Amino acid sequence: MNNANNPSLKSWIDVKNNSDFPIQNIPFGIFSPKGKSPRPATIIGETVIDLSVLAEEGFFDDIIDEEYDAFFASSLNDLISLGKEFTAKLRNKISELFSYDNELIRDDSELQSKLLFKQEDVEMHMPVEVGDYTDFYSSIEHATNVGTMFRDPDNALFPNWRHLPVGYHGRASSIVVSGTDIHRPNGQTLAAGEDKPVFGPCRLFDFELEMAFITGKGNKLGNPVKLEDAEDYIFGMVIFNDLSARDIQKWEYVPLGPFLAKNFGSVISPWIVTLDALEPFRVKGPKQEPEVLPYLKFDGNRNFDINLEVAIQPENGDETIVSKSNHKYLYWNIAQQLTHHTVNGCNIKPGDMYASGTISGPTKDSFGSMLELSWGGKNPVSLKDGSERKFINDLDTIIMRGYAENNGVRVGFGKSVCKVLPAKKY
Ligand code: CA
């Protein structure tokens, strides 16, 4: 176990019960203090810690050498490119500096005034510059629900589904950080019973509850990443809301798959939680049947017990939790996803992002999209204010949260928050 994961560690920074960010987490993000440029940070409790100041003040001198510049960059790409051995050392060092009995910073209020920031006073940015983005389709419950609704309940899964982690290449440029508002997209749709499409605002606006992993290491074109090495390439994970325009999707997706129904915005939580921090939360995944091909075989626990939830908050109303799911339900694990992605020689890079696909659980209250929760609009979902939703309304805010918990330690992801604005006039 990393020392940073020790459940008995406490920080001299105040951490409330149920905080996503105890000293055992130490996630990485990019923030800007008022009037200053974006830079790398971590967070303990509700206190954001400026890593550039720690680097400047020499606190990392025993672990850094030529890596110094990465602490002043406006994305984490350079920092995570230094490799997991380095980022694990860095996480342990941060943990040591903020441990309860370490007086170095604890007793230096002048240093604290330029190093520590209240979460509410700072702006968070995209943690990485995403070069390439892939979206998988790895929840068997989700794929079965969608296949049942749109094709054939007896043959809900396509024949390939249990043999490979299905995915498609998505759009990196429209992945945005939590707090970014997104307009309802305009597009082409074909109404039921019509033979000509119309143009206008999407009517079936949806979310997809997903998580995404980020690679911190690249491979050379032509050199597949083997399954046993795959996790060495994966730096950490975020919550990922894959906004989806169902009516646009239905008309456009044949035969090449999702396009404009998916690339108008995907909203991530701002802190990347490292795989190191998630180590204590590994669990067995679902049994894979039939047996997978040899290149996808794995040892050990490759799924993660991460509780996930989605809430809808209407304008001027309280939020209602509409779904509770878990990352552990994923049929295909992240090591298999990355291995399959590169098995043909495809090269990946630090900062690339790979979403899981909608993570639905086995019960109706654990489905990860409105499409499934309302079963294609047949069963509206009731909100606390008495209103109902088949899909998402204008001015609704979609909030996704996630955390793992055991041994009295809760390692969380914070939130992905997105308000849906009316369509722009075209
Ligand atoms: Ca998706």
Could you give a quick summary of the protein structure above?
The chain is of the alpha+beta class and 426 residues long. It has eleven helices and 26 strands.
Report on this structure:
This protein is of the alpha+beta class and 426 residues long. The protein has 2 domains: 3-125, Fumarylacetoacetase, N-terminal domain (SH3 type barrels, Roll); 133-421, Fumarylacetoacetate hydrolase, domain 2 (Alpha-Beta Complex). Helices cover 18% and strands 27% of the residues. The chain has 11 helices and 26 strands. It has helices spanning 51-56, 77-81, 84-97, 103-106, 109-115, 140-150, 227-230, 246-252, 275-278, 334-342, 370-373; strands at 29-32, 39-44, 47-50, 116-118, 123-125, 133-136, 167-169, 175-177, 182-183, 186-189, 198-201, 205-206, 209-215, 234-242, 244-245, 266-268, 273-274, 282-283, 303-304, 307-313, 320-326, 353-355, 381-382, 388-389, 397-406, 409-421. Strands 6, 7, 8, 13, 14, 16, 17 and 22 form an 8-stranded mixed β-sheet that branches. The chain has a 5-stranded antiparallel β-sheet with strand order 4-3-2-1-5. Strands 9-26-25-20-21 form a 5-stranded mixed β-sheet, with no helix packed on it. β2 (39-44) and β3 (47-50) form a beta hairpin. It starts with 28 loop residues before the first strand and ends in a 5-residue tail after the last strand. Bound molecules: calcium ion. Residues 135, 208, 210, 242, 357-358 line the site of calcium ion.
